[in-house]
């Protein structure tokens, strides 16, 4: 017998969960399919959760969500081989009643979110891989097939929340294949340490947390960043670079992670830790120009599958949850209007995103990937080196007159990058940042 749902959601990451929850809560008959053993089983990493996006889906999430620490301090480091130049922002204001950013462990968080989805009334099936989208004669998506057999499952609309690989969308020709210059490969480890050790090392009390975002010579001149996030009893430590850069340079993510962990500014933070989990994952970092069509007859694409990641601000899960919620609200609205979920009607999803921070931010940074592509050796190598050398010259007290130090610093930049290079880079960056 054929079953029929108001909506099918493919995937139980943050985007799919936000979509399924919102629709189920509004009384729609929702089926969510997840290929993993349980939601989050494919997501063993720690990460930053941006509260605002989740609050708009589940306002009382703080009551029972598995949160690690709320972030009170952000450190941004620019590394060379022996040092870093950093900017730290720490504020007591982040010790607020409803903190703005938390560290989380995705496996636990996704499981919790999924429980909320089921409580809202959705049917959630794990260990079920969607194998195909099914269309009618006119090409409208009318349901899916899964690896469990059992024939076609019908729905008025299918929400593709299948993450970065997006194989179902690719297979159905809804989105193009990922390009190596549009996707980063990240590796990540969990380093376990006693709670008191983490609190002493990072100057924290209670549930306070620190995140460190790092760029510089640790990526061997490739476009990429590294990070350390404090959880309650562990640190998430990782590094990622564009796949196209890995293909050109003969290094591996593992080698970079080792190099990062052994940096003299990083090593003491990890000292004595026990490494328990290891994960590798892709991140769609190509930006606005790589966003595929996100709606069509009977279907919507949300989250990483739609390339919604703001690499400059390290935001992904919040865009996933926001696109999931907006997709769901679109479906709810159209259902009230007795829509047939045609492409023309579902364009409301795109329009709503265009008017929100999601597309505005994606558009703002649309030229950054191109700026970095081809300029990575300077941005991630030459400049971090020059800036660290300048800092050392400036702070070392050695009988050299200050005016002479200034002269040496300016000379080092001219020698390291050339006057034309400096002006050209500044101009290109300013234009890409606008
Ligand atoms: P996913 O979380 O990838 O979920 C997709 C789900 O769909 C998976 O569970 C998968 O099993 C399932 N699926 C796929 N295909 C099928 C199929 N055919 N049938 C059934 N199920 C299927 N973002 C942040 O906001 N903060 C961070 O700190 C952060 N750190 C990150 C660190 C790393 C190392 C990485 C890799 C990413 C990080 N991100 C971070 C990005 C963030 O993880 C993603 O943006 C977010 O998970 C996207 O959510 P999603 O629901 O779209 O996709």
Automatic annotation (TrEMBL):
It holds the Pfam family ETF-QO_FixC_C. Keywords: FAD, Flavoprotein, Oxidoreductase. Residues 206-282 form the ETF-QO/FixC ubiquinone-binding domain. PANTHER family: ELECTRON TRANSFER FLAVOPROTEIN-QUINONE OXIDOREDUCTASE YDIS-RELATED. Part of an electron transfer system. InterPro entries: ETF-QO/FixC_UQ-bd, FAD/NAD-bd_sf, FixC-like, FixC-like_C. The lineage of its organism: Bacteria, Pseudomonadati, Pseudomonadota, Alphaproteobacteria, Rhodospirillales. This is Protein FixC. SUPFAM superfamilies: FAD-linked reductases, C-terminal domain, FAD/NAD(P)-binding domain. One of its GO terms (molecular function) is FAD binding. The keyword Amino-acid biosynthesis does not apply. Residues 369-434 form the FixC-like C-terminal domain. The keyword Flavoprotein applies. Belongs to the ETF-QO/FixC family. Its cofactor is FAD.
